[in-house]
Design goal:
Number of strands: 31
Number of helices: 9
Helix content: 10-25%
Radius of gyration: 47 Å
Shape: rod-shaped
Largest sheet: 7 strands, antiparallel
Distance between the termini: 44 Å
Structural class: alpha+beta
Strand content: 25-35%
Length: 494
């Protein structure tokens, strides 16, 4: 009877395997899919060319169809590195995935900053008083007015001029030929006069200039041989009046500034840039200035002067020269500045190819047609739409530059994450808790805890979670959990 029971059981197992095989074959024939082989769902490394039961765990083998190998989009090919994905051409077009080559090239970055217009310091003139006196009159001298060289701006009276002017007239009358009526000579020829006479005349002329009289008025006084009633204040050059500190009838003291005039035919633009950007800017380099109000663009040139650092700010002041013939630019005006920075030759990729998490940066390199592998890179400067790659890529390689986030998401799904645990979760010691696989506490086989949890083959016992390859192993553990746990603990300690 016992022998008959064994025979009967063997017949039933064979019949069940045959029926299961027929069902899989019929399923494949009904769907038109061709079965290549069968695998253990908990141990994919086990393969069989026939349907049946797994010899180690007793689970039913699952079929693997031909179209599962190579035609499934976004699947990771087994021969590629971890995280690599394979995407067929049709899917790439559907998702908008594009690739571009890694290039070694030079780049030009346009640095855009705000600038402030200031007068060129060598073109700013200050008219000061050399004596005490009072202002008689002023003439069209408002701030912002454009004046011409030697144009009279004001007149004033100063007693100190009288003695010096009288001495000048006496010296010029005592020096024959010192000045004709046509005013052709204000200083005699050295051979025509005594040295004492020339020295005396030159001394009075310099004293008049030092007190504030212009060369125009000195010449006029030498021509008409008369003491002037007032001293004229004239413009020393063509320019705009930036400051005016006097008015009619005003008394003034020695060294008072009457006017400040600037020639604005050429001006400076001062702009602040970051210190690290100055290495891309060179003296003599060209730039472009845009007026915020009129929108007119003017060429500019970086001056040869050394930029001035701002204490604690991490910026430097850069100075540019701008020709301003139409006087569009006025002092203190704000303008837009475009500075082209020339970068050295470097390996670069489009910025959209980079997946930057903050701590790490990676790209997806085309491993073969339709296959992409993740690769960590080290980046340098980022100018415009390009980023420099210091390490990780070579010119000629092709990287994903469009829909990169889709490829990255699929790669993350294909990459198994380390098992996370607290205490002795997953039924393994703490020093093994972060492993990607765990061991079945009954049969000792390595398995994926995620798959075991998905199939319901888990059991919690005394604060720890145990994973099983099959329901049979789980049931055996539940029948004697204490003994199974002790045996598993002993195996781990060994």
């Amino acid at each position: 009877m016992r022998r008959m029971s064994l025979v009967t059981a063997l017949v039933l197992v064979v019949a069940a395997s045959y029926g299961l095989g027929r069902r899989h074959s019929q399923a494949g024939s009904k769907t038109g899919r061709h079965v290549i082989y069968y695998v253990d769902p908990m141990h994919p490394a086990y393969k069989s060319d026939k349907p049946g039961i797994s010899p180690d765990c007793g689970m039913q083998l699952e079929p693997v169809f031909a179209d599962d190998l190579g035609n499934t989009p976004l699947s990771s090919p087994p021969q590629l590195p971890a995280g690599a994905v394979s995407i067929d051409g049709a899917t790439q077009r559907l998702l908008g995935i594009r690739v571009a080559p890694v290039e070694r090239s030079r780049a030009t970055r346009i640095i855009r900053v705000a600038g402030r217009v200031v007068p060129e310091d060598t073109r700013v003139y200050r008219i000061n008083s050399g004596v005490d006196g009072f202002i008689r009159e002023t003439y069209h001298d408002s701030v912002g007015v454009l004046v011409k060289k030697d144009q009279r701006l004001a007149t004033y009276y100063a007693p100190d001029f009288l003695s010096v002017a009288s001495g000048f007239l006496a010296a010029i009358q005592g020096v024959p030929g010192s000045a004709g009526k046509d005013g052709s000579r204000t200083v005699p020829f050295p051979g025509a006069l005594s040295k004492q006479g020339v020295s005396s005349l030159q001394g009075y002329t310099d004293r008049l200039r030092n007190l504030g009289m212009s060369d125009v008025q000195i010449k006029r006084m030498g021509d008409n041989r008369q003491l002037p009633e007032s001293i004229d204040v004239v413009a020393p050059a063509d320019g705009f009046i930036l400051a005016r500190n006097i008015s009619s009838g005003q008394h003034f003291m020695h060294d008072m500034e009457f006017y400040r005039i600037a020639d604005l035919s050429r001006v400076w633009v001062v702009a602040e840039v970051y210190e690290q950007e100055t290495r891309y800017l060179h003296p003599g380099g060209l730039a472009q200035i845009t007026s915020k109000y009129e929108g007119r663009k003017l060429p500019a040139r970086i001056t040869d002067s050394l930029p001035q650092s701002e204490a604690g700010g991490g910026t430097v002041k850069l100075r540019l020269e701008v020709d301003n013939p139409s006087f569009i630019l006025r002092p203190e005006m704000l303008v837009d500045v475009e500075l082209p920075g020339r970068l050295p030759s470097a390996v670069t990729i489009p910025l959209d190819a980079l997946v930057d998490s903050g701590e790490r940066a990676r790209v997806y390199v085309e491993h073969s047609e339709g296959s992409f592998e993740p690769r960590e890179v080290e980046t340098g400067w980022r100018f415009g739409e390009r980023v420099e790659i210091l390490k990780g890529l070579q010119p000629g390689e092709r990287v994903v530059v469009a829909a990169t986030f889709l490829v990255d998401s699929e790669s993350r799904l294909k990459t198994p994450a380390p098992a996370r645990s607290t205490g002795r979760t997953a039924g393994v010691p703490e020093h093994k808790a972060a492993a990607k696989t765990v061991r079945d506490p009954r049969c000792g086989m390595s398995l994926d805890p995620a798959k075991a949890a998905a199939s319901g083959n888990t059991f919690a016992y005394r604060g720890a979670t145990y994973y099983f390859c099959s329901r049979q192993c789980k049931q055996a553990f539940q029948n004697d959990p204490a003994g199974s746990a002790r045996r598993r603990q002993g195996d781990d300690d060994d």
